[in-house]
Design brief:
Helix 2 runs antiparallel to helix 4 and helix 5 packs across helix 8. Strands 2-1-3-4-5-6-7-8 form an 8-stranded mixed beta sheet, with helices on both faces. It starts with 9 loop residues before the first helix and ends with a helix. It has 9 helices and 13 strands. It has 340 residues and is an alpha+beta fold. The chain is 30% helix and 20% strand. The structure holds 2,5-anhydro-1,6-di-O-phosphono-D-mannitol and magnesium ion.
Length: 340
């Protein structure tokens, strides 16, 4: 045991860092701790997912005669409830809801903030016991009216905080308030997150590329060329690289954050704007990548600089170690005029 290292819980850490915000009165701290609470509730349900056959399939009625909710719906409801109960958020945009969820009255005291989230990303992986995650993003509200979508039409660089919870072989919460990235691991026996990965830095380079190669035929030529480049033998650059694709963006990102690597979800012929959502997935992960010294673009321009025009907007995503993303962009730029 390393007795020189201080044990710091998520709650203590949030309070300690409150002074980073000059005018903070504790609202953001309360909001972050609400996310930590919802994460623990959702974690408990995810850990029981393998028992669904015994206790009742999701969508069916369980042995107690209760309706068993699909986990993505369950996660959505619990994150919304935890945030609503703290009263610091005036509206939530969720990948699970077509429209904004807005709060009024006691549930929105001053409601300085709005939250965009993907409550359970990669949820198709749940049935096969593969990691999934919750992704969140916090902005200052812009309009007096919580229902005004303009509150969410802010470029990603305006994020006050962003992060994710990964429900993997252990459960972790990783977040940033714009002052570095810190990771906390859940001790399930006592139900508390502890600082386990202080000041996370994404390696400047890496040798893992992560992309759904099944779509190869539909990729832009720049991506095809980059993949081929990754596969060529070259001692100096340590190629061929390793291919790893989990199919849960949070898990692929988390691995690359620690080991170094690139994750690409490009535009494809059938999905010309890519698959991933700017507000719910790309902006929060891009914020974390940049805070950890990495890079995130759509193959040409910075993700955090994109002006959103709709809640469920999609964008191609190239994210990870700075040098790897830059290299992939070089290949994209060769065809920029053709693809523009
Ligand atoms: P979801 O929000 O519906 O779960 O979809 C997002 C997920 C990402 O986690 C993952 O990177 C991607 O979809 C995988 O897509 P594909 O199966 O097309 O490779
Ligand atoms: Mg998603």
């Amino acid at each position: 045991m390393d007795t020189t290292r201080k044990i710091v819980s998520l709650g203590e850490f949030i309070i300690d860092r409150q002074s980073d915000f000059k005018y903070a009165k504790g609202e953001l701290s309360r909001l972050l701790s609400a996310i930590g609470l919802a994460a623990r509730i959702v974690n408990k349900e995810i850990r029981r997912a393998g028992l669904a056959d015994i206790l009742g399939d999701y969508g069916s009625t369980n042995v107690q005669g209760e309706q068993v909710k699909k986990l993505d719906i369950y996660a959505n409801e619990h994150f919304i409830k935890a945030l609503k109960d703290r009263g610091e958020v005036c509206a939530i945009a969720s990948e699970e809801n077509d429209n904004l969820v807005e709060f009024h009255g006691e549930y929105c005291r001053d409601g300085k903030y709005v939250v965009a989230m993907d409550p359970l990303d990669g949820s198709s992986n749940i049935d096969v016991n593969v990691s999934v995650g919750t992704i969140f993003s916090i902005y200052r509200r812009k309009s007096d009216n919580p229902a005004n979508p303009d509150n969410f039409m802010q470029p990603g660089y305006e994020q006050v905080a962003a992060g994710y919870v990964i429900y993997g072989s252990s459960t972790m919460m990783v977040y940033s308030t714009g002052n570095g990235v810190n990771g906390f691991t859940l001790d399930e026996s006592i139900g508390a997150f502890f600082l386990s990965h202080p000041d996370m830095q994404m390696p400047k380079n890496g040798r893992i590329y992560s992309i759904n190669e099944g779509n190869y035929v539909h990729f832009p030529q720049g991506v095809k060329d980059y993949i081929k480049w990754c596969q060529v033998e070259d001692k100096e650059t340590n190629r061929p690289f390793t291919s790893r694709y989990i199919g849960s963006a949070v898990a692929d990102f988390h691995r690359n954050l620690i080991k170094g690597g690139i994750f690409i979800y490009p535009a494809t012929a059938p999905a010309p704007r890519g698959k991933l959502r700017l507000l719910f997935e790309c902006n929060p992960l891009a914020f974390l990548a940049e805070q950890a010294g990495g890079r995130a673009t759509d193959g040409f321009k910075r993700i955090l600089g994109i002006q959103p025009t709709e809640l469920h907007q999609r964008t191609p995503l190239f994210i990870g170690s700075e040098d790897m993303v830059k290299k992939a962009e070089e290949f994209m730029n060769k065809y920029a005029e053709v693809e523009a």
